[in-house]
Amino acid sequence: MIRHAVRMLAIMYCVCGQPAYSSYESQAVMPPLSFSQFCIQYPEDCQRHDDRRIRDFRSSVQRWRELAQINSIVNFGITPKDPPASRRDAEWQIFPDEGNCGDYAVTKRHLLLRSGWPSSALLLAEVVIRATGEHHLVLLVREGRAVLVLDNLRPVVTPLVDALDRFAILRAESGTDPQRWTREVSAF
């Protein structure tokens, strides 16, 4: 009953919230329904978080190691599983035993937020895998001038410029507001 109510609230949010394209920022779009449902279940992960990292003590090498470590822990800590027909991709969860790409991406984002990374640097992105046409979720991480991809299909953190030959970005979270999504690739 509660799951049904959550789904209905998320659908109402998507339908009534704003038009598919909004003038809030260029190329603003509705977030995936899965994201809306995730935010109902995990509201803290959908709020703006400022940078709490201590810059003097964490070099770029240490931050790179942290990204690689979290990517590896999550990739090996969740058993890949196609969602059952009743669940589909609609219910992203943080650190489930078994999960799909959405579960991997939100878990990585959750761990990085808890490590002090700002929400503006951690952007969920819906992509299409060029080889298969399959929709997929990854985490884009802004680190200095670089944008890095944390993907459950790859064992290593990859620069976005190198990953764009494997997939095309459909939409991603806005760096200014975690609740907003955009199609504008230059925003990353």
UniProtKB/TrEMBL annotation:
InterPro entries: Transglutaminase-like_Cys_pept. Pfam families: Peptidase_C93 (PF06035). This is Periplasmic protein. It comes from Bradyrhizobium nanningense. The lineage of its organism: Bacteria, Pseudomonadati, Pseudomonadota, Alphaproteobacteria, Hyphomicrobiales.
